[in-house]
Task: structure prediction
Amino acid sequence: MAKSKAREATEEILETLGDFTSKENWDKFFTLRGAGDSFEWYAEWPELRDTLFSQLPSSSSTSPIQILVPGCGSSRLSEHVYDAGFKHITNVDFSKVIVSDMLRRYVRSRPEMRWRVMDMTELQFADESFDVILDKGGLDALMEPELGPQLGSKYLKEVKRVLKSGGKFLCLTLAESHVLGLLFSEFRFGWESSVHAIPHKPSNNSSFQTFMVSMVKQKLGAINSIKASFDCSSVNCNAKQVYATVKAVENENNIRNQYSSGDDILYSLQDLQLGAVGSVKELLPGRRCHLILGEEGTSVYGYKAVLLDARQQSEPYLYHCGIFLVPKTRAHEWLFTSEEGQWCIVESSKAARLILVFLDSSHALASMDVIQKDLSPLVKNLAPGETEDTAQIPFMMANDGIKERNIVRKVTSPVTGPIVVEDVIYENASGDEASLAPSDIKIFRRLTFERSLGLVQSEALLTRDSASSPNKDKKKNSSLPKSSKKRGKKKNDSGTLLDGPKGDLKINHSSLASSYHSGIISGFALVASSLDIASLSGEKVKTIIIGLGAGLLPMFLHKCLPFLEIEVAELDPIILDLAREYFNFAEDKQLKVHVGDGIKYIQDNNMVGYSEDTKNEENIPKSNELTDDGSKTNCAANGSKSSRLKILIIDADSSDLSSGLTCPPADFVEETFLLSARDFLSQGGLFIINLVSRSSTIREMVVSRLKTVFHHLFSLQLEEDVNEVLIASPMGTSIDIDRFPESVAKLQNLMKFPVADTEIDLKRLQCLQ
Result:
């Protein structure tokens, strides 16, 4: 009867608690119970002892174990642990009533044990102060279902902060689903976890099973499966509760297995904050991970992103953290989708940490201001260093530096897709554009393909006069690489220069606006002597260009070097129509266009050349044969395959930008085509490729194949562009390797336009073979 009344009294006191997170309620609870009384939540000491001791590390006089008991209440747990030899125990509770009572109770009998009035969600200890944190029901008390996980999360953050590396968090809990859900997710990365069932004596009147969850602090980023030391058949208490715990462990292990199974999994912002790839507050050079931002209603939109910590570099960073927005129209490009391409962006951004954010169709109607406002609080959590110390995080985006733009024509081709012809005025990097007269401001006409918005296919200078005299200052902006211009938003406001009359604007075919075209022509200097001989003898030098674009390169060559016999192979007839209509391209007997596949065109030329040379071989004197050392005697006048100079230029872009090879298409660097090109050139001529690839691996592959097929190989890396001009020649060709200055001068004399327009520069020419 006495026990029944005591139990009723206890239940009556418990009813005073109501909210287990209220300090006032706990003060009232402990006051009603009176001083000197103990109250045990969950398991008693005899049941708990063996399991607890199996998890406590060994203590020694030289290295005593520091134990923290948060939310200690009036439990005798600390007393028992102290008596077992663990003297350095710190007990905290936010109830001043119970801390005062416990201090009076143990101040003499257990003098080394400390007691502090403290909120367990705001621990006033230094980082990594404790070897063990022993929680008996504290987390459960904070996890009121109506209040959500906020207090529990705050408490566990403090637990992780004050626990030493290698230390243990031992949590005695009833293992309710919402408690385990928080525990398992918070300690998912960088912790070794196990779950133990506390033995339950049949005489115990409790209908609930107590569990001990053990968490060992390891290196952030490591992920381990949870070990369970029990199963449903081994626990004789509340089968439903035990089964739910077993299933919770299984489900969490499935999640952890998914994280550890692949390199490119999508982490959440919370995953990164929990240490999925190490501490996000620290810079780890070379770290790269995929993540999602804005999930679970934390923002208006959701985003896929890639976090990259810059590799070690000698130059200082301009930004500690930067955001690079990738529009949907460019998200498929190699530069943004491949790891190698992404590192290129990191390097050019000058940011210690760069977060690439990929926009998709869900962001189509949102302005950049709205997106930046939505992203700002999310990315702030990903900046290295402390939040209050971080500088402003810049937002970057693919930009083309265009001041004004006017769309002249948009058309969709079944071969190429959407094509744009536009007139543009670029921003002046020097900032003195306002001082220029309207007639001095340069206007360019561009041809761009929507499939590769990061690449300007062709660009021509527009002039207001007859363009009979060359423009000696053709470079519009030295800080803007022509080959890698990006489209910006349209700035065609009323009253701009592009709105005015354009009847007097004409394409200036005596000026090359694309620097890589100048690079191609620079390569001609390698055979300047042969070109000079052809010009003097009246011989036409057959020149084939694969890829018409706007027709600017063939038109320039046709006017500048009239002894060239130029044939262009272009796959798309619409490109030819646009070149004629908007870029003043015109054919004649020495400049012709063939619509069709460029590879087949070269193969067909080989067959024709072979047939013609077979007829001529009977009339070629023996003296014109190759000598033993691979050189040839003079036989230019005979026009034979072994003597006639030819030039083959590949200036076409790839439709598959995800491959990492922007120019040319991959088929043009396959060995089979390279062999056809060599056969076409025979023993004389140049094979020139406009190569655009940010991938060093792909570039090396192309160079290796060219070295295998050709005898000579040169590279001209353009100073500002991603373009590289590769110039190859077959065995036996007379290359002016040792006479570059003389060769440049000889080529300049052959050209009808001054050197300033062609920028012949072989200083950056590198001999690869």
Q: What stands out?
A: The chain has four domains: 2-259, 266-397, 402-507, 515-611+632-767. DSSP finds 22 helices and 27 strands in the chain. Confidence is low (pLDDT under 50) at residues 1-7, 466-494, 614-643. Residues 239-259 form the longest helix (21 residues).
